[in-house]
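Annotated sample (chain length 160).
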Amino acid sequence: MAALHDYKVSLRWADDSGTSSYNDYTRDDELSLPHKDAPLPGSASALFRGDKSRYSSIDLCVAAVTQSHLMRFLEVASQVGLVVVAYEDEAHAIVELGSRGDGVITGVTLRPYLTVLDGEHANEAAITRLHERAQSMSVVARSMAVPITVTQGMLEVVAA
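Output written by the structure step:
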């Protein structure tokens, strides 16, 4: 039997003048998660009159994809004995907007940059296989309806 896990997020939005005009209401909101130190400031994308200094739903979606991949990659690396000492990712998503302002994320590309200790799996071919395995295990990636591509970024192998 599968184990079920429950994730909760509270969202709060308020604007004293309300939505009487599309141009005037705030797009800012606040996300709160149980047991987290601080709320996460959210907003609409700047394209939709939001505050670009706050997190949009698309930002958070791309962040979820890359963080989920990272965690699974570190897990599979540890299982085969690959010692990862640094991991950076420059994730990228493309959003295609329709004429009504509707849209869709057409794809997400991850480009992990790794620093690993020298060893049996410290080569691009082995690491590519580990990325494929991690991607197949990622809860977020498996829940997405868009293609997620992992393109190997720079690989630095350092002496053990």
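Annotation: The chain has a mean pLDDT of 91.
Annotation: The beta strands are 10-12, 29-32, 40-42, 84-89, 92-97, 103-110, 112-117, 148-150, 155-158.
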